[in-house]
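Re: the request from the purification team.
They wanted to know what the chain is likely to look like in 3D before they choose a buffer screen. I agreed to run a prediction and write the result into the notebook, where they can find it.
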Amino acid sequence: MALSKLDADGIDLADDYAFTGTVTAPSEGGAATTNVVQGLAKAFCATDGDTTVSDSLNISSVSDFGSGDNSFVVINNMGNSTWCASGFARSEDTAGRRAAFMQFAANASYMGPNYTRIHCNYDNTNAREPGYMSVVFHGDLA
């Protein structure tokens, strides 16, 4: 696709350009290609571990269901309930800053096309409220 509407200084950003199709990029060795759009994150969120969002993409809300138990709701649904979520959490408690691990529940009621529920822990038994949490979602949009 070629852009044909240009100003003297470049692309006229007042116009909207829509692209449909597949964008591919060669691998470093050139033997394979990858669909660039499939590899992009479809949503992300950085939060204080409560409901205050400091930055996000495609996230409508964060809910707090208790200590270390949060739900993230996406604006544009994922294509199914088997998309991928990853993240990081950190605590600032009396022991100082330390990393927490995040459990993405395998229970079907904890993950759907438009949300995921995440638990933060320091060990397998104690849920902890994180001082900071970031999550990234990958998969196909509906």
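For the purification team: The chain has one helix and 13 strands.
Please add any questions underneath this entry.
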